[in-house]
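Lab notebook, bench 4. The sequencing result for the construct came back, and we need a structural model before the next group meeting so we can plan mutations. Quick request posted to the team channel:

Model the 3D structure of this chain.
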Amino acid sequence: MPPEHPSSALAPRAASLRAELILRWLPPLLLVTLALWMAQAGHNQPVFLGMNAAAQSVPEAVWSAVTILGTGACAYALLAPTLVRMPRLMAAALFTGLFAGIFTHAIKPILKMPRPAGVLAPDQIHVIGEVLRSNSFPSGHSVTAFAFAAMLIFFARRPLLVAAIVLPLASLVAFSRIAVGAHWPLDTLAGAAGGWLSGMAGEWCSRRWSVWDRKPWRIFFAVAMIGLGIGLVGNDLGYPQAVWLQYLLAALAVVGGLYALVQTLRMRGAP
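Done. Here's the predicted structure in token form:
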């Protein structure tokens, strides 16, 4: 049998790299393109009205629970079980949160765009939870959802499989912001695009930051998670129908943080 040609051995890797590049850059490209088209065509308000009305067929408690998953504290709490075995994921989350926070909070106060409740008459919109009227663009919950989705996808060994799971969930969180009457579709599209780029950047930084596995950083991650859980108990997220999920995530953060702290303190010989 003739020896395998080197180019044939490299073909699968080249195909894998192409697939990863497509996965990295196609979502934000599509999101930005759709956002620009919606803004240019003037479809932002009509699409919001249709989506907000259609979402009323789903119980308010469901949308309340889905939408709080886009809160930063709740997203971080979901990572509590990974602290012991995958400390780099928390490092990636911290970088991701930094980029996502800069993106969100640098734009909102500059544009000061009104939310749907600040433009539409009360009988035109169905609002769940707190009524918000200002600082609409971009949607912070959409930023968080897609930032953590991208971070998880590119952290994983099987990114396509993880993408098939987390992208629909992130999209549902983004849609929930329209369902609860808090954001325009344009806000969620821009937020999703910015979040995706933030997640990619955060995961990339974590692979080049060499101290995340050291014992002091593990202790910091664990203590920070415990504090986050305690703070989440007393934090008013504006959705009383989802308080049960808020408390559940708070408990997950505290228990996961305590377990990680105990396991880390037991480590011997770690720097």
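Residues 37 and 43 are 8 Å apart (CA to CA).
Will bring this to the meeting.
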